[in-house]
Amino acid sequence: MMNYRETDPEFSQRMEHFAFEEVVNQEGQQLDEVTRHLAILATLMGCQGKELFAWELGQALDAGITPVMAKEVVYQAVDYLGMGRALPFLDITNQVLTQRGVTLPLEGQATTTMENRLEKGYQTQAEIFGGQMLEAWKQSHINYWLADNCFGDYYTRTGLDLKQRELITFCFLAAQGGCEPQLTSHAKGNLNLGNDKDFLIRVVSQCLPYIGYPRSLNAINCINKAAEG
């Protein structure tokens, strides 16, 4: 990434100033370092920024993101980006952690079994989106999978709390684009958990350099719709 300083010095100066100084220090739009790096890691996965993800992961680990937290971001991405887009980031994460002397595999974080993952999954959905989700899994096989796989397998894991998990889901969806109905729904889920409108706008602001203005403006529109609803 930093080779651009030699090959494209004017571009690099403006890009780095905006992304790493102006945006990070914008008054009223700042986040704590752990939250900012969680959001950026998820955003880079959503927009498939592999090279920058590898660099950012090092920055995130230095800023207080633990190896477990980093892995949980990657694991959860499978349900929102699909295996084809998520697994290359698992390879990158493993490489970075190994280079830093981290022994793999990490300690397990699962809290459900194959027998109770469905129940725990729809209970977690209800905690985020409301009591109607206790029966939503019965609507179709896709809704069943959402409950037992997406929420039962991943949202119930330790390593990240529920507010952090809804945050990174919001970032996955905002960054990949084309998922505005789901993005609005998860903006509402964030609001329900206490990640308020101001917080979500700050998240979008900190991620804007990585996904550009169109998807950032789309995300803010979805936040506004969620807040109005």
Q: Give the count of helical stretches.
A: 12
Largest sheet: none
Compute the number of strand runs.
0
Structural class: mainly alpha
Overall average pLDDT: 97
List the helices and strands in order. HHHHHHHHHHHH
**What Rg, in angstroms, do the CA atoms define?**
18 Å
What's the end-to-end separation, in Å? Answer: 41 Å
Helical fraction equals: over 70%
Low-confidence stretches: none
How large is the share of residues in beta strands?
A: under 5%
Indicate the overall shape: globular
Could you walk me through the main structural features you see in this protein, from its secondary elements to its overall organization?
It is a single chain. The chain is mainly alpha-helical and 229 residues long. It has 12 helices and no strands. The chain starts with a helix and ends with a helix.
In short:
The protein has 229 residues and is an all-alpha fold.
